[in-house]
Amino acid sequence: MAEKLLRVALKEDRAPQESSSPVESHELCLAQQLEMDASWLPAYHLEPEHVDVIRAFVSSPEKDEERKLKFLTSIAVLFRAATYNSLCQGLDLFCQRYKLAENIKVLLEEEPRDQLHTAVWRSAMFAMTEMSFVEAVLEGKEIGLLQACFSGIFLLPPKEEMQDLKPFLYFTTMKGMDTMLVALVLNSPTSRVNEKMQSIFQMLLTFTTSERASVRERAVGRMRVLSFLLANYSSLKADPNEERHASHAEMQMPIIGQLLGHLLLLLSFKEEETGHLALDALCLLFQFKYQQHCATLTEENTQLQGDWETETTSLRTSPSATHIIESFAEYLQPSERSDIVRVFIEAMTDSSTFDKEAARNVLDVVRGNPDLWLVDVPKITSCIHKTLGCIKSVPARQSVESLMVSMADKCPQEVVTTLLQVAPGGDSTALALWEAMFSVPQTVRNILKELLSQLWDLKSRLFCTHLEDYCLVRLAMLASRDLGDRAFAATYLDFRFLKEERPAMLSLVLRAIMTLSERDDMARKMKVILPDLMRVLLFGYKAATTKALLVFRTIMAQLERREASHIAVQMAEFLLPLLDDELSQLRESSISLFRDLMMMAVGNDKREMKNVVRLGLLPLFFRLSDQTQSVAKLKQDRRRAQEFLIQSLSYLKDAQASLREAAVRFIALQTLAEDREPSIRSLVAQTVIIILSSSREQPRPRWTLRALCCR
């Protein structure tokens, strides 16, 4: 009767005030009276003093350290006595009325985060441990309490940095947390164990990415405790009122893929205790997955123990992430393998604290067996698209892009469909992924084929406009058809997609053409696009220009010299402004192509080529000192610079005024005599001496264009 009336009081306390009948008012007054003396609580007669301490603490504004510890100790004693004597009736109402869980949480949040001087943390967790034995007392409040415990204790400074820290206090505090976690799991109904462990693991994972070693170590230590519970749950005593406990086959843990991925990455912290704890947790999780797998078999169960011990010994002997992931592979569900892959992709971001090399090594394993690991294509594709923009490191980007290529080779349709769905038109990250896929010969053909079908109806969009998409569709049509030289030329002339001045589209289309032209037969067909390639240079888009030069060089290499001669002269003239471009890669490509084109001129084209090359002599000479080594190597050896300077004097008497003007500007180095760089001033002085000593005798030019540009 007393418990029923208290439930009425609690309900009334939460509900809006309304008029009540005389009978209800009488019951309410009686309930409030019972509440005041707490004698209605069956456990009160076991520990009346502790009940009074709890009630006094909640109602008092004074909450010093001594009162806090008495309050927490009283909760633990009361619940332990009630559980032992089977007098737990009404404790849920008692907790609810006096808001015990909420008060504990407030105490935890008020504790200092820079030192561990008191036993408040330890006492609070012991209290929560005893409360977990009573059903429904902590229901719905565990997550908040655990978050307060984890945030407060994990984020404490390292042990060695906390002044006057008592080792025993630290040890018992951490031990108290482990005891609490075990109790929370084992005292949960079987139907809720999966959910409970999933939630706790999820909270712990957030601390494993911390930059602080002490935080990672504390979190991984708790993950090890939970992993032990998971591996041995079916043999541990949980709720004594339940006839049986969940078997390994019934223990479904959706988070296990993420958990394994993070633990594998934590192995790289070998200088810390973290790595050893992570290895222990991995071995326990391997035991769980192995037993879970064997539980579905019929004949191998008798060998379970021996096989598991053999496998675990192997893991400890060679504790590398690649070895462990290969050992786990056959026992994992497809979704778990996909989650592991996603964790390692996310580990490549610049903000990640994990070892990028270890992550790349695991992704190499994944690429080596795409049928096993790259199963959930939409999920992994979405993860790559979401993550790539946060990866600036070139090796890391290349690793992730290579993974995308492997997936595109395996499932081109799913990759194309997903990327078109998740990326808005013109998205820069998606364009980088398309370009990566367009860089591999077999992949580009498969992807273009899929794009042809999915972009044709205009329902999907890769670029910002349908016009740009249509240009890619037209390229896809050319690439997918087995056309002869004449048919290919006629078809391209109908499309002329390289004439569109769209930087993103041009860059991606040219990337595809670069890859397609690696086949000699395709490169020969592509001679029809050479005039449009030259026009691309006029647009001024550096990325597109660099690719256009590489394509031009590939195609020209397939032409007969007489056929290439006139085109070479035209293109050489287009290249002149690029020989001095600020972008080193573009300079290198321009100079390299300029050298090749010069050798292609025959007949009457030779004279025109000579005139073009003369215009390029000065920029080529100055690039002898290019700080980009690959550019400088394309010119003369620097030791021949003085001879070239002497040669330039002959141009002062050249018939062409423009060439005489260029020679004057070249020789007029006196303007640099006051340069702030000592090395420049010294070079000017040396040059003037050379000029003066050479003025009496000016030899005829002995260097040929071949010697200048093609050494």
Short description, anyone?
By secondary structure, this protein is mainly alpha-helical.
What does this 3D model show about the protein?
The N and C termini lie far apart (105 Å). The protein has helices spanning 2-14, 22-37, 48-59, 65-84, 91-98, 100-110, 120-131, 142-154, 167-186, 190-208, 213-232, 256-266, 273-294, 304-317, 321-328, 334-346, 356-368, 370-373, 377-388, 394-410, 412-422, 428-437, 441-455, 466-480, 485-495, 503-516, 520-525, 530-539, 542-556, 561-575, 584-598, 605-622, 629-632, 641-648, 657-667, 678-694, 705-709. With 711 residues, it is mostly helical. It has 37 helices and no strands.
Radius of gyration: 38 Å
Count of DSSP strands: 0
Largest sheet: none
Tell me the fraction of residues in β-strands, as a range. Answer: under 5%
Structural class assignment? mainly alpha
- How far is the N terminus from the C terminus? 105 Å
Structural shape: elongated
Which stretches are poorly predicted, pLDDT < 50 over at least 5 residues? 1-20, 22-34, 634-642, 687-711
Q: pLDDT average, as an integer?
A: 81
Helix content: 55-70%
Number of helical regions: 37
